[in-house]
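Session log. Operator J.P. requested a structure for one protein chain; no other inputs attached. Running the standard single-chain path with token output.
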Amino acid sequence: MGERKFSIGEAIGFGWETMKGNMGFFIVLLLVLGAINIGPCIITNMFKAAAKLNEGSETGSAGFTWGMLLLAILVSLGGSVLHVITSMGIIRITLKMCDGEKALFSDLFSCLHLFFKFLGASLLCALIVVPAVGVPVVIWIIAAAVTGVSVKLISAVASLLVIPGIYLAIRLWIVGYCVVDKGLGPVQSLIKSFALTRGSAGALFLFALSLGFINLVGALCLLVGLFATIPTSYVAMAFVYRKLREADEDSGAVISPGHEWGSGVSPA
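Structure written below.
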């Protein structure tokens, strides 16, 4: 297979123009997403505070404390579920925009049927990337603490040790797109992500740095700029996925959709 290529400038430019053409839609969408993500945290903290106040009160009851803590756990879990659902919805919305289709607010909750596939794929990615980044660094820090190595050397070596984890994260960053776009199961979406990003790790790393930079600029503009840079980033990411997908399909390598975790079907 040939090297996967895409233009970072073209992706960000497309994201910018799409954002400008749908500014009102994205402002409302970001406000909704903010409420969905922040709301459960606020409610959870309120329940925890109520439990703490009751525990410290002379007239408080253990039943009330445990009830508040249980409600806090349930709200937190509900918030996590909503986060997964809306993450799929954002992918659906931006893919529709890349395909020239009109996105709707209802698309934010249009992928409920893919919930467990998306969750499974996300957990698999975490199981691969987090140990790859964290375990070598922790081992090195412990070894450095025992041997008395200088802090500068610890920092330098730790920076090198995270490179494999960063590489894996780059190769797996479109797993969610594979699930939402093609309905692939967790294992198949990981396989497909590795296939689509083959030969493009360096370009994807620079692309991620570019998105990080423009969002930093947006944050520096009194955070208001994020209402422009975040949607631009969302659309640009979907655009890059589409380009990688087109290159893969042009090569004739296609994985059939619908394979579930543990289906035993080999990729093409």
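Operator note: The radius of gyration is 22 Å.
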